[in-house]
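TA notes. Do not distribute before section.
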Amino acid sequence: MSLLWTSRDMIDAMDGRPLGAMPAGVTGISIDSRTVRDGEVFFAIKGDRFDGHDFASVAVANGASLLVVSESKLPALGRVTAPMIVVNDVLAALEDLGRAARDRSEAKIIAITGSVGKTSSKEMLRRALEPSGEVHASAASFNNHWGVPLTLARMPQSAAFGVFEIGMNHPGEIRPLVKMVRPHVAVITTIAAAHLGNFKNLGEIAAAKAEIMEGLAPDGRLLLNRDNEKYAWLKKRASELGLKQVQSFGENPKADYRLLNCKLHPDCSTITARIGGDDVAVKIGAPGRHLVQNALAVLGAVKLVGADLAKAVHALAGISAEKGRGARHRLRADGGSFVLIDESYNANPVSMRAALELLRDTPVGLSGRRIAVLGDMLEMGSFSERVHRELAGPVREAKVDLVCLAGPEMQALKAELGSDIETICRDDADGLAEYLKTSLRDGDVVMIKSSLGIGFGRIVKALLDKYPALTDSSTQD
């Protein structure tokens, strides 16, 4: 395997001090001692709960050929015999290496932020760009203060395209990250009530997301959702920052990348869109109206970086929904089968509505039911009771037959639903899992959705363990 970094280049980029016999270089970068591979460098980052220095020997045992460690922690590493690069601050060193990766790269760089749709748009863009050249993209949702520099530092010099997801929970978090990434194209998928408890209103969320504009490369291009209520404000903010190349996507007749028509199907969507003056027919391999909007942004970004649009359109037919973000499983039960929709990764009011629409649009069997398994949406602050109560309308519109709830905030939804729809409540995810394991029948469609911290992924696992798969229809979103 070719080297990602030579040791000398790493030492120079991080202003580090070599200790021991340096290897020629490393083939990869890890911050997790459990998953580090042979020939990789392990950065001993100190996190909120764990200090990587405590796991340095584990990293070496698992194959790390080089360690990056803090000067202050060196005395405690006396028994670790692997070569090291010693720095003042390990996370800062990773950031420096990320900047060096950006400096040496000739790739076209795209950065994506937004209240919802970041990860699915990133994965769609990765797939759409692959026919046009080597693509480097964030793993999973590596979009925070350590995920972004790690993704940058892992970018090979040979990459033709780099796709970066940038997230935030509070104001000021995007700004330093995007200044590392320095994208040629920045995409804001949408502005919505996510992390609302950390902001006074939607305007403050828009201002935080707009920080992505501040790191654009010279002559960089901004791509905005023209259908979003904060479009005009974002366009004005771009003008204040002197950005001259601002384009948009959406159904709005003035959108540069415009949806002309759309047909939603249980397992995919088909659309016609006007992309840069060309009308293109697109099949999106995973279902959901929210993915249609994301696809417009993706095709716009493809056009802006000069990749092959026709190949990108063809590639979108092959996308699928990933674990926790719409992955589908058909499982055997009651002499037949039921469909499990795994939306357990995260939840906010917008994504909750999108998941309920997916449930609505999925056909049930002859005696089947639509079952919504819903847990609390976290980080809603003083807005929490209201936004949970307001889910009653989307639940009714989705023609849900049975609602299964857990979490204290979901009591507001229970009260709002009243006796309209059969409702089951349990204290936590494990309680709902036990109920569902004995209650599902042929023809049911079960959609599981909550914020990650509520642990509804355990419900998905329990059902997958209990019921055998009829077909492996797990997908990637």
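Switch to the second chain here.
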Amino acid sequence: MSDPQPGRTREDQWPLVAVSGLLSFVAMLDMNIVNVALADIADGLHVSAATAQWAVLGYQLPVVALLLPVGRWLDGVGLRPALLTATTGFALFSALAAAAPSAGWLIAARFVQGACGAVLFVLMPVLAIRSVRPQLRARAMSVPATLGPLGAVTGPAVGGLLLDHWGWQAIFLVKIPFCVLALVVAWRALPRDGGLTAPDRRSLTDAALVATGVTLLLLSLTLGAWWLAPAALPPLWMWLRGPGARPLIGVLHVPGLLRAHSAVLALAAGFAAMHYVVALHLQREDGASATTTGLTVLAFPLGMGLAGPLGGRLADRYGPRPVALTGAALTAAGLLLLVPLGDGWSPPDVAWRLALAGVGMGLNGGPTQALVMGAAPPHRTATAGSAVQLARTLGFTLGPALATAAFGLAGSEANDARAALALAATAACLAVPLLSAPREGRR
């Protein structure tokens, strides 16, 4: 997905950068917003809670499983038709999910919506860097890199508000106006740059192998079925040995990019584990109300939202690596400061620590994405973007699973939260050396 007019100087298209942020927010919002409506969906469609859970998994599984195959496919098609098609599909199947008369209809709509979401996840960083000059790349990249995680964090709160006033169908309908707005802007501002081509048989085989392996891995983390994890290895190994993995391997062989992807995964896992533990502990152990808990954890996205644009500006001026490294260090510091808190947590004491960690994540997101996308080969930007999104999404999934595993290993209920937070802080701390400048190696 290279620039159709690489030698032409053009004006910066900030409306398209806004579209990348808006669609990143919407696609990531769908990862968590449905969780709060599962009981209502089960009652409304007369199914069990386990069946209703597939309204969530039906979206999450194709999003994660298709990221790498979609990245390879998007490297060879036009940005404009891919974006318009994926956004239209996302909105259409959101509407079909809201109109579902049965669980089967709802789950099928969510699977297709998830496939469209995978395309959006990969396209958004590509759209951001294609819309501005190279010297403004980090500033543009900070928009989707900040708004995407904010969508994940605010999903339950937005979903609860919609559920209380308009019912579970509103959770699927709320995204449609944003998609329509994005379509209007993209239709008018994006230049025509080719068409869509169907994947060949080899690509479909590779996609099936990756999707099978990643799905089994995700199910093992989400459902706690750890015995599924070894079953993910054979299909992933077969894919790695074939030609389909070569674009990804080539990207990860670029100096520093494997470490950057690992840092993204580590920070996402630390953040997700922390968010899970703090919300659970405030309500279960300290008896805080849902409102108090919500306001306390809101400190993290507020800090992140305020620091995100600043991180992009600083990275454009001083380079993405030092800003990304500073952000990772601040996030790790915020999580480390949560560990020594006593049994009785004060919401203000928790909030300022979360705000510090949120500022760090805001400073880190855009610069890290710009670091990866800037170092990737120009004809592999979609592949690089898909790898970053996969690392981040797996981190978001891995964090709560690790926190749950830490519960019970500390020896007493009083130490459960401390052990889980120590694990979250350790994961965040790993990102600091991973983002430091790599030593000069052999050419």
